[in-house]
Automatic annotation (TrEMBL):
Ranges of biased composition (kind: Basic and acidic residues): 1-10
Gene3D superfamilies noted in UniProt: LCP protein
Name used for this protein in its record: LCP family protein
Keywords from the UniProt entry: Membrane, Transmembrane, Transmembrane helix
Top-level taxonomy: Bacteria, Bacillati, Bacillota, Bacilli, Bacillales
Pfam families: LytR_cpsA_psr (PF03816)
Transmembrane segments: 36-56
Residue ranges occupied by any Cell envelope-related transcriptional attenuator domain in the UniProt entry: 106-251
The family this protein is said to belong to: Belongs to the LytR/CpsA/Psr (LCP) family.
Length: 333
C-alpha cells in the first residue's frame, strides 16, 4: 500500500499547479515612463517643426534662381524624389555682407560636386581660379573667376558648364569670410594637413590632424605662397579638405545641436537656386553619398601671356578625363 493517501496526492498536485505571478511594477513608475515618452515625442516634433520653419525661412532669404528650367546639357530636369544624380557648383566669393553675392565680386574658389546616391559616391572637382577659358556671355577668354564678377551666378554657371562640357544643375555662392563663422558655429572642424608650412605664425605639419577654429581654417585654405604649402594645387586641396570636414560636421548629431546658429550664418552669407523642397529631398535621399568622396584636381601649367597676366592653362587630356568621370558619376555616360 502507498504511503500517501488520496488526499495527500491531491494536495501535492494542487501545489504543483499553483501559478506564481511576478510582482507588478508600481503604477507610479509606469506613469512616469509614459510622461517621459510623451515629452520626448513632443520634443522631437517641435525640433522637426523648428527645422522646417528655419529651412523655409532660410530658403526665402538665400534663394536666387537661375533663368532656366534645367541645364542645356541635360534632356530633362533632375528628379530628386527619385534620387537621380545631380551636380552643384560652389563659388567661394571674395565679398562681404555689405556688397552681397549677386555679382561684382570674383570667385576666389570654384568647386564642382557631382552626387550619385545609387552608387553612394560624391565627386569633388576643383577648378583653379586663374584657369584661362571662354567667359560665356562676355565673348572673351579670361580667368574663369572673372565670370562671377561680370555676370553673377548666371554667367559663372554657364561658363563652368561650357568649360567642363557637362551640366551644372545648381549653384551655391558663399562669401569666403562666412566660412570662418560657419566653422565657429559648429564648434570647429578637424582637418589633416596636406603640407608642412607656416602661415601667419601658425605651423602645420603634413599628415597631422588639427582641430581648427574658423580663423585658423581660413588661413589654412588661403595659404599658397608659403614654402611647403604647394601653391595653388595645395590650396585647392585644402579647400576641399575643409569643405568636406565642415559638411560632415554640419550633418552630424553634434552639428544639429548648432543648427540655429548655422542657419543664421547662412542667411546672411549664401545665395543658391535650390528651393527648400529640393534641399529637404537632398537631405533625405542623398545622405549616403557623402561617405565616399573622390577629390579631383585639374592638371596643367602656369603661364604669363601677352596681356601680362598670370594664367593656369589646363591640359586638354586632363579636362576630358575629368569631364568624362564627372559625367559618368551623373549617369550620363
Amino acid at each position: 500500500m502507498s504511503e500517501y493517501s488520496r488526499d495527500d496526492r491531491l494536495n501535492s498536485q494542487n501545489d504543483q499547479n499553483v501559478k506564481y505571478e511576478a510582482p507588478k511594477k508600481p503604477k507610479k513608475k509606469r506613469k512616469l515612463f509614459k510622461k517621459i515618452f510623451v515629452l520626448l515625442i513632443i520634443a522631437v516634433i517641435l525640433f522637426i517643426g523648428f527645422m522646417i520653419f528655419k529651412l523655409f525661412s532660410l530658403s526665402n532669404d538665400i534663394n536666387q534662381p537661375l533663368d532656366r528650367e534645367y541645364s542645356e546639357y541635360r534632356d530633362n530636369k533632375v528628379s530628386y524624389l527619385k534620387g537621380e544624380p545631380f551636380s552643384v557648383a560652389i563659388f567661394g566669393v571674395d565679398s562681404d555682407s555689405e556688397r552681397g553675392l549677386s555679382g561684382g565680386e570674383r570667385s576666389d574658389a570654384i568647386m564642382l560636386l557631382s552626387i550619385n546616391p545609387k552608387e553612394k559616391k560624391t565627386m569633388l572637382v576643383s577648378i583653379p581660379r586663374d584657369t584661362r577659358t571662354e567667359i560665356v556671355g562676355y565673348d572673351t577668354f579670361e580667368k574663369i573667376n572673372h565670370a562671377y564678377a561680370y555676370g553673377g551666378p548666371e554667367m559663372a554657371v554657364n561658363t563652368v558648364e561650357n568649360f567642363m562640357g557637362a551640366p551644372v544643375d545648381h549653384y551655391v555662392a558663399m562669401n569666403m569670410d562666412s566660412v570662418k563663422h560657419l566653422i565657429d558655429s559648429v564648434g570647429g572642424v578637424k582637418v589633416k594637413s596636406n603640407g608642412t608650412f607656416t602661415v601667419k605664425g601658425i605651423d602645420f605639419v603634413e599628415g597631422e590632424t588639427y582641430k581648427m577654429d574658423g580663423d585658423t581654417a581660413l588661413k589654412f585654405i588661403r595659404s599658397r605662397y608659403e614654402e611647403g604649402s604647394g601653391g595653388d594645387n595645395g590650396r585647392q586641396e585644402r579647400q576641399q579638405l575643409v569643405l568636406e570636414s565642415l559638411a560632415t560636421k554640419m550633418l552630424s548629431p553634434k552639428g544639429l545641436l548648432h543648427i540655429n546658429s548655422v542657419f543664421d550664418t547662412l542667411g546672411d552669407n549664401v545665395k543658391t537656386d535650390l528651393s527648400s523642397r529640393e534641399i529637404s529631398l537632398m537631405a533625405l535621399r542623398y545622405y549616403g553619398a557623402k561617405k565616399n568622396v573622390e577629390r579631383v584636381q585639374l592638371e596643367g601649367e602656369d603661364a604669363v601671356l601677352n596681356d601680362g597676366l598670370w594664367y593656369f592653362i589646363p591640359y586638354d587630356e586632363s579636362i576630358n578625363e575629368i569631364s568624362n568621370a564627372y559625367r559618368q558619376n551623373l549617369g550620363l555616360e
